[in-house]
Amino acid sequence: MRAHIPSGIDFRSPHVTVTPAEAASRAARLLARPAVINGLTVPNRIAMAPMTRMFSPGGVPGEDVVSYYARRAAAGVGLIVTEGTYVGHDSAGQSDRVPRFHGDEQLAGWAKVAEAVHAAGGTIVPQLWHIGMVRKAGEPPFADAPAVGPSGLRIGEDEPTGTAMTRSDLDDVVGAFAESAAAAERLGFDGVEIHGAHGYLVDQFLWSGTNRRTDAYGGDPVARTKFAAEIVAAVRERVSADFPVIFRYSQWKQEAYDARLAETPEELEAILSPLAAAGVDAFHASTRRYWVPEFEDSDLNLAGWTKKLTGKTAITVGSVGLDGDFTKAFQGQGAPIGSLDNLLDRMERDEFDLVAVGRALLQDPQWAEKVLAGRFDALAPYDAAAIKTLS
Ligand SMILES: Cc1cc2nc3c(=O)[nH]c(=O)nc-3n(C[C@H](O)[C@H](O)[C@H](O)COP(=O)(O)O)c2cc1C
User: Cys-Cys crosslink for 189: which of 79, 184, 303, 333, Cβ 3.0 to 4.6 Å?
Assistant: First the structure.
C-alpha cells in the first residue's frame, strides 16, 4: 500500500508503509509522464527553476553556462527555465554578470545553450526579466539608467526614489519583452517565461504596495494586471501561435515574504484571467514551500488554485528535495509535509502538472535522473555552498 496523506489531519501516520520498490515505481510513473504546453511536449514533469547565477560576464553566457544547463538536461530535467535574463531596456538590470537576452554576442551565447540542451534531450525556455525599482542607480550594465517602476516606489518606501514610468516607457518595456521573445523563437528555444514574480518590475505593477498609479494601469487588481497582460499580448503577437508562453508570478516579494497579491481565490482569478486571455499557456506559481495551502478551507497550493481557476498548465515550486524528510515515507514512516510522497499525491490528483526544482538541482545535477530511477539514497543533501559554483 502506498503512503497517503489524509488532508489536514495527520501527516505522520506511523501505520503507513511503502517499500522502496513501490516508491520508486510510483515516482517514475507520475514524474516520467510527458507534459504538453501549447505546441511543446516536455519529456517529463521535472523542471529546473530559474536561478540567477551571475556567471555571464558582459551579459554573455559562455561555455561554462552551456555545460551547466546541458548537464542537467542530460540527467533527466524535462524543462529548463533559465536564470533571469535582462530584456533590452537600459533600466532592466543591475549586474554585468547577469546574462542578457539582447545583443549579438549575448544571443549567440544563448543559441549555444539551446543547442546543447536539445542535444542532451531536454527542452529550454529563457526567463525574461526586468527588475524595475529593485535597480540601484549607477550600477552596470547601463550606469546612467534610472530605476523605473509603476510609481517610482521601492518596496517599503512611502515616497518615490525612482521614476514613475510614462506611457512611452511602458511601450518601450513591452516592446523589449516582445523583442526578446521573438529572439528566443528564432534561436530555437522552446518557449519563454515572463518573470512576473518576486517584487520585480512586472510584479511591482501587480501589487498594490508598489503600484499607486491613478491611470489605467493602477487601481483594482484587473487594472494592475494591465501592464503584464500587454506584455503577454505583445509577446504572443511576435511568436508563433504554438510557441509556449509561461508566466511566473508569486504572492511573496524578495523584500516582503508576507506580501500577497490576492487574499481570496476571487481576487486571484481577477488577476490571472486577463493574463490567460492575453495568451499565457502555463503559469509558474512561485511559492517558497509547495505544501502550504494558499487559501482557507482547501489543501490546494498556489499552483493548484492557478490550474483550477484558469484551466492552464500549472508548475509548482518551493523547497522540493531540500528537507531531510524528503524520502522518509519510503522507509515506512508516513508522508511528512514536504516529502516526495506528498508531492506525488498532489500530482496524482492533478493539482498541478509540473514541478520545478531549484536548489536541489544546484546541489546535485543528477537529481532528476536519480528521482526518476528511484535512487533516493544517492541524492546529495543540500548545502548552501552549492550556490557559489557553476558545477
Ligand atoms: C540562487 C537563486 C537564484 C534565483 N534566481 C531566480 C531568478 O532569476 N528568477 C526567478 O524567478 N526565481 C529565482 N529564484 C527562485 C527559484 O526559482 C525558486 O523559486 C526558489 O529557489 C524555490 O525553489 P527551491 O526551494 O527548489 O530552491 C532563485 C533562487 C535561488 C536559490
Answer: 184
Looking from the CA of residue 359, the nearest atom of ligand 1 is 27
Nearest to 92, CA basis, from 157, 16, 5, 180: 180
**Quick check: helix, strand or coil at residue 195?**
strand
Question: In angstroms, rounded to a whole number, what is the distance separating the alpha carbons of residues 224 and 270?
Answer: 10
The answer to whether 184 and 125 are in contact (CB under 8 A) is yes
pLDDT tens, residue order, the chain (391 aa): 333 333 332 333 344 567 778 888 899 999 999 999 999 999 999 999 999 999 999 999 999 999 999 999 999 999 999 999 999 999 999 999 999 999 999 999 999 999 999 999 999 999 999 999 999 978 888 999 999 999 999 998 889 999 999 999 999 999 999 999 999 999 999 999 999 999 999 999 999 999 999 999 999 999 999 999 999 999 999 999 999 999 999 999 998 999 999 999 999 999 999 999 999 999 999 999 999 999 999 999 999 999 999 999 999 999 998 865 566 544 444 556 668 888 999 999 999 999 999 999 999 999 999 999 999 889 888 888 999 999 9
Q: Is 69 among the residues known to form the active site?
A: no
Which residue has a Cα nearest atom 11 of ligand 1?
A: 50
| Cα 196 to ligand 1 centre (Å) | 13
380 lines ligand 1 (CB under 6 A): no
Judge contact between 282 and 333, C-beta under 8 A. Answer: no
Choose, from 200, 217, 249, 382, the residue flagged as catalytic: 200
CA distances from 91 to 56, 147, 299 (A): 18, 6, 40
- Which among 52, 68, 253 is the best mutation to test ligand 1's pocket, defined by most ligand atoms within 8 Å of the CB? 52
| Nearest Cα residue to 77 out of 391, 390, 355 | 355
Widest Cα–Cα separation across the chain:
63
Q: How would you classify residue 59: left for phi > 0, otherwise alpha for psi between -120 and 50, otherwise beta?
A: left
The DSSP result for 224-292, as a single string, is HTHHHHHHHHHHHHHS-TTS-EEEEEEEEETTBTT--S-SSHHHHHHHHHHHHHHT--EEEEE-SSTTS
Q: Are 239 and 181 in contact (CB under 8 A)?
A: yes
